[in-house]
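Key result, reporting period 2: structure in, sequence out.
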C-alpha cells in the first residue's frame, strides 16, 4: 500500500496521444485502409493504388508529430524509457519537465526526477503538479518535512485538489501528526468521496514503515467508512491490525466504526483477532 504515491500524468492530452500511438504502431493511412480489422470495408487494391499516387509535380505530405504527444502515448503504455527520450526532444516547457520527471520517477530515478521537477518549477513556480510530484520524491526518500512543504505550496496554488490533500495527510501521519493528518484526509474526502479507492496501487515504492504505515491504514479506514466504502474500510483495518497500530478493543470503542457493527466481514475480522 502506498498512499503517498499519487503521481498522475494529469496533463496528458489523452486522445491525441492515443492517436499518435496508433499511427506509430499501425503504420500509414494506406496500411490502415487495407487492414481488415481496423477497416471492415477496405479499399480495393487497384483503387487504393490510384488514389495514393501523387501527381508528378506534387510533394508528398510530411507528418509532423509532436514529441510531447509521442511521450504521452508511450507513458500510457508504461514505456517509460522511450517516453523519457521523446520528452527530451520536446520544447522544454514547465509541463514537459514535469512529465519528464514522472517518467524518471516511474523508473526509480529519484535524483533525475527531482531535478526535472525543479526545472519545471524554475519555469513556473505555480506548477501545482510539479510541486506535488516533488513532494512525492521527498516522501519516498523519507524527507517528510520537505515533502510537507511542497504539498502545502501546491495547495496554495490548487486548494481544491483532493489528491494533494490526501498526500499531505499521509505525510503528516508519517510524522506522527495524527490529528492534522486526519484533518487533511477529511478535506480530501470532502472534495472527492472516492479519493481513497485507488490508494492501494503501488507506484514507486512505500516510504512508510511499521507502525506509521499502520496509522495510515487506520485513518484510511476511517475515511472509507465516511465515504460509505465499508468493504475497503475493513481491508484497511485488517492492515492496521497486522501492522500492530491498533487492536480490536480500540476499533470497537472508536465511534467512527459504529456503522460497521453487524456487518459480517467486520464481525469476522474481530472474531479472527480473538475478541472476547
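The corresponding designed sequence is given below.
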Amino acid at each position: 500500500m502506498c498512499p503517498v504515491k499519487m503521481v498522475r500524468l494529469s496533463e496528458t492530452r489523452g486522445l491525441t496521444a492515443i492517436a499518435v500511438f496508433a499511427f506509430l504502431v499501425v503504420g500509414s493511412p494506406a496500411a490502415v485502409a487495407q487492414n481488415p480489422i481496423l477497416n471492415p470495408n477496405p479499399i480495393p487494391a487497384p483503387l487504393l493504388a490510384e488514389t495514393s499516387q501523387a501527381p508528378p509535380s506534387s510533394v508528398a505530405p510530411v507528418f509532423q508529430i509532436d514529441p510531447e504527444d509521442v511521450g504521452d502515448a508511450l507513458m500510457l503504455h508504461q514505456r517509460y524509457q522511450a517516453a523519457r527520450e521523446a520528452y527530451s526532444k520536446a520544447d522544454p516547457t514547465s509541463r514537459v519537465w514535469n512529465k519528464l520527471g514522472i517518467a524518471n520517477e516511474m523508473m526509480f530515478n529519484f535524483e533525475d526526477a527531482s531535478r526535472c521537477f525543479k526545472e519545471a518549477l524554475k519555469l513556473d513556480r505555480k506548477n501545482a503538479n510539479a510541486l506535488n510530484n516533488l513532494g512525492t520524491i521527498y516522501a519516498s526518500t523519507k524527507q517528510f518535512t520537505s515533502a510537507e512543504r511542497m504539498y502545502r505550496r501546491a495547495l496554495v496554488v490548487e486548494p481544491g485538489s483532493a489528491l494533494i490533500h490526501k498526500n499531505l495527510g499521509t505525510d503528516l501521519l508519517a510524522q506522527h501528526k495524527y490529528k492534522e493528518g486526519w484533518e487533511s484526509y477529511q478535506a480530501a474526502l470532502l472534495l472527492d468521496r472516492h479519493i481513497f479507492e485507488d490508494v492501494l496501487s503501488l507506484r514507486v515504492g512505500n516510504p512508510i514503515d511499521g507502525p506509521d504505515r499502520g496509522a495510515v491504514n487506520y485513518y484510511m479506514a476511517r475515511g472509507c467508512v465516511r465515504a460509505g466504502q465499508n468493504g475497503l474500510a475493513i481491508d484497511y483495518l485488517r492492515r492496521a491490525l497486522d501492522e500492530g497500530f491498533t487492536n480490536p478493543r480500540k476499533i470497537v470503542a472508536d465511534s467512527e466504526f459504529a456503522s460497521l457493527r453487524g456487518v459480517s466481514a467486520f464481525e469476522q475480522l474481530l472474531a479472527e483477532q480473538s475478541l472476547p
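DSSP finds 15 helices and no strands in the chain. Confidence is low (pLDDT under 50) at residues 1-10, 14-52, 199-207. This case is discussed further under Risks and Mitigation.
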